[in-house]
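Q: Given only this backbone (447 positions), what sequence would you predict?
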């Protein structure tokens, strides 16, 4: 077995184990926090995080993927230049938070946002000072060290948030926990690789390489923001903060299989593909298809289980204030499938320096969201909005597959086979569920 293959298998196992542990911590913390805090606070925090994420994505020049794919990924000059650009970006993002605070507060009619956004925006400065070891370890597929670090940081941040919420049941618990978590991550990142010694530097050739690759990352991530956060931006206006908070609970649970795939794709698939990128396309396609088939089957099983048990889980562990999330989760979970299909292979477009297709896919997805969510809400209420959101990855799936076809790595037949397997599993398990006396997963929706 080759060294890269061993690292890929080990990295995938660590990614899955780390994700599982992370979700257990997140879910446990979420259940505790929903007992301590009212839904409106989760809605307010979701709204703030949306804008913070938006600023991050709108200024992303692809520093981490640039380090992973570059032949100079271990060069101190290149790394220090990347780190310097990252620090500058962090301060610019914080200024962006200050600038948008007033208009955002006006638009949503919540003047807490005027001072909350600049405060929570301080996390962008902290992340700007993160060590580039987070990228270099990813480049070397040393996922075990990254996973241990991330779990430790999450545990400490969550513990602080829960203790804070116990003594002060206000938005400050969520804000304070986020800030302290960012500080822990920044300090801890320098202990991951003590051989790296960062200093401010702007090397002309390094800047040129980073910007050359980063321009497409910038466009892609800017479109990603609108595509992935349009639901919160729109629902924050159409729904109450309470309903937005309930939706956030359902979405975060349904998002679990999507997150694990994103982690595997970023931590393992992208670095591995980058090492094979010079081999003939047919050979590259065959290598990916063999591994991808197993990944899709595992994800289909995971999704089937979640669709059939998600509403039961919500009704068991959350109190009556969150019962609306029970009918939302199965719809949102099924809608994750098109994303799983294209995200399990779209990193090849980044490795081929063709992220334009991903950017275009997200642009079309954004148009879909901003056009159809208000219309669906008007005619079918919350149910209509949730159905539109659930299947928002269909437009980007079509565009990305066009890109894969152009680059001669299309795997449409494998997609169709995996979708049929998912459909059969969902049909059988739902039939068994009804025979056991349970209602259909989608019941009692709010129209």
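A: Predicted residues:
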């Amino acid at each position: 077995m080759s060294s890269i293959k061993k690292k890929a298998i080990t990295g995938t196992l660590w990614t899955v184990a780390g994700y599982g542990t992370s979700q257990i911590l997140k879910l446990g913390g979420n259940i505790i926090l929903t007992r301590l805090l009212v839904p409106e606070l989760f809605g307010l925090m979701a709204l703030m995080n949306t804008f913070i994420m938006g600023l991050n994505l709108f200024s992303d020049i692809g520093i981490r993927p640039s380090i992973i794919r570059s032949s100079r990924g271990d060069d101190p000059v290149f790394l220090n230049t990347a780190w310097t650009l990252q620090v500058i970006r962090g301060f610019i993002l914080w200024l962006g938070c200050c600038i948008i605070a007033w208009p955002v507060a006006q638009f949503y009619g919540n003047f807490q946002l005027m001072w909350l956004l600049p405060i929570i925006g301080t996390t962008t400065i902290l992340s700007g000072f993160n060590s580039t070891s987070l990228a270099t370890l990813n480049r070397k597929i040393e996922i075990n060290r990254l996973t241990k670090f991330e779990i430790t940081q999450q545990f400490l941040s969550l513990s602080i948030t829960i203790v804070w919420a116990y003594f002060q049941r206000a938005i400050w618990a969520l804000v304070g926990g986020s800030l302290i978590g960012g500080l822990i991550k920044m300090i801890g990142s320098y202990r991951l690789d003590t051989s790296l010694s960062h200093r401010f530097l702007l090397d002309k050739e390094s800047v040129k390489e980073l910007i050359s690759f980063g321009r497409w990352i910038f466009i892609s991530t800017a479109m990603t923001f609108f595509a992935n956060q349009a639901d919160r931006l729109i629902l924050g206006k159409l729904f109450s903060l309470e309903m937005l908070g309930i939706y956030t609970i359902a979405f975060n649970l349904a998002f679990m299989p999507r997150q694990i795939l994103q982690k595997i794709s970023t931590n393992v698939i992208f670095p591995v593909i980058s090492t094979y990128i010079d081999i003939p396309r047919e050979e590259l396609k065959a290598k990916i298809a063999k591994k991808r088939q197993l990944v899709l089957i595992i994800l289909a099983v995971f999704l089937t289980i979640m669709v059939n048990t998600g509403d039961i889980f919500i009704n068991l562990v959350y109190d009556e204030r969150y019962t609306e999330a029970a009918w939302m989760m199965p719809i949102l979970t099924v809608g994750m499938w098109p994303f799983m299909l294209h995200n399990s292979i779209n990193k090849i477009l980044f490795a081929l320096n063709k992220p334009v297709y991903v950017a275009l896919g997200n642009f079309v997805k954004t148009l879909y969201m901003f056009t159809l969510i208000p219309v669906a809400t008007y005619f079918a209420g919350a149910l209509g909005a949730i159905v539109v959101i659930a299947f928002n990855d269909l437009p980007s799936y079509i565009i990305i597959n066009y890109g894969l076809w152009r680059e001669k790595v299309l795997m449409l037949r494998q997609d169709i086979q995996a979708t049929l397997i998912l459909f059969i599993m969902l049909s059988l398990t739902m039939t068994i569920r009804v025979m056991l006396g349970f209602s259909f997963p989608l019941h009692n929706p709010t129209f």
